[in-house]
Amino acid sequence: MKKALYSLAVTCLCLSTIHAQQSLLNLETGKHKIYTSIAEGLKNPADVVILNLRSTEMAALPEEIGVFQNMVFLNLMKNTLTTLPASLYRCRALKEINARQNNITQLSEDIAQLRELVALDFSRNQLTTLPRALGKLPKLEVATFTENKITTVPKEIGRMRSLKNLSLNDNQIAALDFSFAGARNLTMLSVANNQLRSVKGITKATALTELNLHNNRLRQLPDDIGRLRRLKGLIVSNNQLERLPESLCELEQLESLTISFNPIKQAPKDLHKLKRLKVFIAVDVPFSEAEKARIRQALPADCDIRF
Predict the structure, then answer these.
(1) CATH-assigned architecture of domain 2-24+151-306
(2) Per-residue confidence (pLDDT) for residue 1, from 0 to 100
(3) Mean per-residue pLDDT for 45-62?
(4) Above 70 in pLDDT, residue 8?
(5) What is the DSSP letter of 59?
(6) Residue 98, beta-bridge partner list
(7) pLDDT (tens digit per residue) in 107-157
């Protein structure tokens, strides 16, 4: 039941996330030949713009990768890589790297040399940390590091002005306490299924429209969460919250709010201010019948309310 309700909540979030995650490969296909092996590319290195090495049973990326100076898109998905060679960071034209579903344990600080990067996907690897050098990538918009073993996030992430979409689901992160004030274009932050106890730094990310904190260990949300005036979707289900900040009612753009599976006994007093709310999911929250009635009366008549 929890999984079904969580899926419903996620689908209620804005579709901008899907748009943000669309691969650059879709934009480049048709313009350039897609190379599917390094050997093939070495015949005409200057012509290699797209290199697709997906599912090639590759255990190591050869040093020769560094000769592809015009490469824009590199797909390493579904291999058995554990490291990336130093020569890769000579591919200064790279805009996107998809290395999901490998066994990579570490990203080098040399990634700062790839200053044209727009999108990174290192989901389903074995990363335990992220390099501070990510903060030096001036054009990075989409960063996906779901299903790793990451325990901490470098504060430099909060200074990335170009970053729009950050996915850190299914890791072991305990806190996001650094300021996100520099991440002025961050619209989607997803940190579901971690070990978060504190997220006090996120309220500086005032461009956020979607925030997913499902299944963590949060006992409270920042009292100033109302600073996130552009927020449209908020998921805080399956935590240890006993109350919601009163400032939550200042989120006048909010369309979807999910608070299921928390020991909250009373909702904020000024719920009537959430005039745009379309979905309110509070399953297995110990509201009294009187409180449920108050919530129904306070929220818009067309709001889909689920207790």
Answers:
(1) Alpha-Beta Horseshoe (3.80)
(2) 63
(3) 97
(4) no
(5) S
(6) 75, 121
(7) 999 999 999 999 999 999 999 999 999 999 999 999 999 999 999 999 999
Pairing of the two strands 279-281 and 304-306: parallel
What DSSP string describes 16-57?
HHHHHT--HHHHHBTTB-EE--HHHHTTSGGG-SEEE-TTS-
Residue 244 has which token pair? 């919601």
Residue the block writes with tokens 């297995």: 284
Joined together, the tokens standing for residue 284 give 């297995």
For 43, the token pair is: 């015949």
Whether residue 275 contacts residue 252, with contact meaning beta carbons closer than 8 Å, is answered with yes
pLDDT in tens, 150-209: 999 999 999 999 999 999 999 999 999 899 999 999 999 999 999 999 998 899 999 999
Put simply, whether the predicted model's pTM sits higher than 0.85 gets the answer yes
Domain boundaries, the chain: 2-24+151-306
Tell me how many degrees the CA angle 28-161-179 measures, rounded to the nearest 5.
140
Reported in sequence order, the residue ranges of the chain that DSSP labels E, i.e. its strands, are 34-35, 50-52, 73-75, 96-98, 119-121, 142-144, 165-167, 188-190, 210-212, 233-235, 256-258, 279-281, 304-306
d(CA 84, CA 245): 44
Token reading at 140: 């990075």
